[in-house]
Amino acid sequence: MSGVKDNEELRGPHNMKSDIEPGEQQLVSLVEVEDAELARKQGESRSQGQLVRRRFFNHKAAMISTVVLVFITLMAFTSIGFAGIPGWWGKSYMMSGTVINGGAPTMSLLPSWLGGSGLAIGEHPFGQDNTGKDYFALVMRGTQKSIIIAVTVGAVATVIGAIVGALAGYFRGWVDEVLMRMTDLFIVIPLLVLAAVLGQMAGSKLGGSIFALALVLGLLTWTGLARLVRGEILSLREREYVAAAQAMGSKTSRVIFKHLLPNTIGVIVVNATFAIAGAILLETSLSFLGFGVVAPESSLGLLISQYQNAFTNRPWLFWWPGMIIVAIALSVNFLGDGLRDAFDPRQTKKTRRRKKTEEGQA
Amino acid sequence: MSIASEQATKGGTALSFENLSVSFETEFADVHAVKGLSLEVYPGEVVALVGESGSGKSVTSTAAIGLLPPNAYITGKALVGGVNVVGMPESKLRKMRATDIAMVFQEPMTALNPVLTIERQLTESLELHGLAYGKDATARAIELLEMVGIPEPRKRIKQYPHQFSGGQRQRIVIAMAISCDPKVIIADEPTTALDVTVQAEILDLLRELKDKLNTGILLITHNMGVVADLADRVAVMFRGSLVETGTVDQVLNHPEHPYTQKLLASVPRLAVMDVTDTWVPEPADVVDPDRKLVLEARNLVLEYDMRGSKFRAVDDVSFELGRGEILGIVGESGSGKSTVAKAVLGLLPVASGVLAVQGTNLAALRPKAARAIRAKIGVIFQDPAASLNPRFPIGDCITEPMVVHKVGNRASRTKRAQELLDAVHLPRTVMNRYPHELSGGQRQRICIARALTLDPELLIADEPTSALDVSVQAAVLEMIQELQESYEFACLFVSHDLAVVDLLAHNVVVMKDGKSVEQGRVTDVLHSPQHDYTRRLLAAAPVPEPGEQAERREARRLLMAMENPDS
């Protein structure tokens, strides 16, 4: 899944794609042919980024996931408002009220001609909890927090992982030894235990801010990316453009940040998405165990943990946050898949091509 | 388009293509790689398929062995011993491989599995095809190794690939190819990865084997010297079509198609070596009092750190390079020629001795001063595919040295890039294109432009044309020469190709195992070599003229016999 490989893929057909246009003088030298082609080439020049984007937009699963993700995020942030800005959903997640109809969800999606009660949202679409709080507002609040945590963790882990990996891979020798042994150290300690202890400590020091928790989780989950980036840099640093940059007199920082890291963007982006999916699940597990987000704040994991006993008689209290966790984690994973295919196009479309070849031979 | 060969009357072909077309479905458009090709290879005959990159020569051969990727769309026929393999099911095709058609690959380093012994790899195909088992197979394998000239085969068969040299590994690959007595062997650039002296030996071996085994050989190569040395007939491909076929004498000495003519004209040729000792050297030039030394090495020693122990790659080498001169460094792989270039570029520290650029000793400089001096040195590397950052547009690639050394502003940088693009004959519009949109030759021209951005005093060219096609190589060499005249930089030109150095350089250093064996003016060293090693190198380089090459082959044999009278 390296940027290097897809360069080769892109590079391949260029020499071959060369049908001489009728009426043109016949060229007999490869140099002339190539130059003529270059001169004839019109239209936008596509950068590697644009090529990747194009392939990504053609990836159906990834595009559907993006839509789902954007929808969930928009719902979460606009419905109950964020950072003091009021949302369009009138009820607050803090406000308790009278429990109507045992707190059952009022949302109905089954049209009346199919025996349902028609398309309606009702007063409490996701139902109410035992103190009569609107469950939709609660779930949206939890989703907000989970998304914030996931993105922060993803960003922190990616930055640390990429830098540690790049330094270890570029300098090798003792720098590599020290950084990689440190990475090993983080890997051998059970993540959940460490995250629980550190998250608790950070939470109590900073007054239960979810950012503190996110930061701690980010500081613990960069190890996988560091290893991948290190491997990638180790092979990239032998390339001649790196030697050319060094020979030009570039500073080490320029070589690393201008020439090496941008070329590992494939690995980094793909792993950032998986880190986000992992962070959502990690936060959920921590909150479920009671070490993550604490009430009166809300998070999806916390909601599940609070209402796990309600599973038999009021299952919606369990299902709504659960479904949203699954939806977010799945779509982020699909997004990562799409990005990986976009960065390494050789993994896709094999079946379709083979089929065509067989038809041709028959 | 095929010509009637005398063997045609004797019966079946070993390999023949009838109107073969191959196209690949890619992301953007279908690429038509081979367009209606017809060609025959008869038993005991070597047909050379020559062409430049993108001509479809490798695709043709891969179609015959059925190893094209699944996005290939093939029409026409490829007959191996009279059986059409196009569209044949994989299981049947697998039975034909090795017994009917075998392949010799370009890179002997990667064609053998490093974790299996030679014995295991040689007996594998024998056992798979049920020709011999157990002790019989081993005996046959030893016989094969003997046939390809591996000394002490009984002992060495137990060894692993890394214990053999590159040439020996290629011999083993050839032994594997002939193990099941195939009707035809496809040799895809079999000597390209090898040094010239080893190449000459492998060519001798192939010639010997095809006579002994009566196998047809389809030789795919871009090297006209190899064609002249080995082939009986030649087929020239250009952009997917055959443009010319004929006997080696017809095609190489009397080419008819303009493409072939141009191709042959762009092959650099070595002047005839004088071995009769009647060479009178031109009188030495009077030393110009104004001659400014740009690069000077005195007793230079360079070492690689191999996990604690030092490996001495360059040992006690001295040379001088004045302004406006080109100094060639030639040698085979492992001779330390590229290491010298690396040291000048500051990619390797100097272990001892002096390496001075314009009188400043690089070894004694602080990092900051050393960075400043890099502005005076431009560099061109071997692989145009790897020497441009794929994420930089061409304009940024060219102006990068200015950015690094903080020269000029945005407008002046753009202007400089445009000037340089004009100088390397590329349209200014490529500024915004990306390296992957350019061909290898064009990319190498961008590298030249980048090397000249800061008007360097010294240009380091490390095998700048060895990854390029002959005609492209000719254009690039011409360009270097032209630019050198107008910009007057000194150039250190590292190459394994003696003909290229002969064409371009004024002075030459011949290196072997880290030591300089002979140095001086090109006219003296390459035309009347004093050292045996230089003579051997010169004798081993094949020339693209069958008659002359036959003579050179004989001369080389005599030279070798003179040197080792006991063998």
From TrEMBL, chain A:
Species per Swiss-Prot/TrEMBL record: Paeniglutamicibacter gangotriensis Lz1y
PROSITE patterns assigned to the protein according to its UniProt record, in alphabetical order: ABC_TM1 (PS50928)
UniProt record, GO biological process: transmembrane transport
Region (Disordered): 1-21
CDD domains: TM_PBP2 (cd06261)
Descriptive protein name: Oligopeptide ABC transporter permease
Any one cellular-component term (Gene Ontology): plasma membrane
Membrane topology qualifier: Multi-pass membrane protein
Biased composition (Basic and acidic residues): 1-20
Family assignment from sequence similarity: Belongs to the binding-protein-dependent transport system permease family.
Membrane spanning stretches: 61-85, 147-171, 183-203, 209-229, 260-282, 317-336
Localization of this protein: Cell membrane
One Pfam short name: BPD_transp_1
SUPFAM superfamilies for the chain: MetI-like
Keywords: Cell membrane, Membrane, Transmembrane, Transmembrane helix, Transport
UniProt cross-references to InterPro entries, sorted A to Z: BP-dependent_transpt_permease, MetI-like, MetI-like_sf, OppC_N
From TrEMBL, chain B:
NAD recorded as keyword: no
Name of the molecule in the record: Oligopeptide/dipeptide ABC transporter ATPase
InterPro entries attached to this UniProt entry: AAA+_ATPase (IPR003593), ABC_Ni/Peptide_Import (IPR050388), ABC_transporter-like_ATP-bd (IPR003439), ABC_transporter-like_CS (IPR017871), Oligopep_ABC_C (IPR013563), P-loop_NTPase (IPR027417)
Organism: Paeniglutamicibacter gangotriensis Lz1y
ABC transporter domain residues: 15-264, 295-538
Keyword Nucleotide-binding: yes
Primary localization: membrane
SUPFAM superfamilies: P-loop containing nucleoside triphosphate hydrolases (SSF52540)
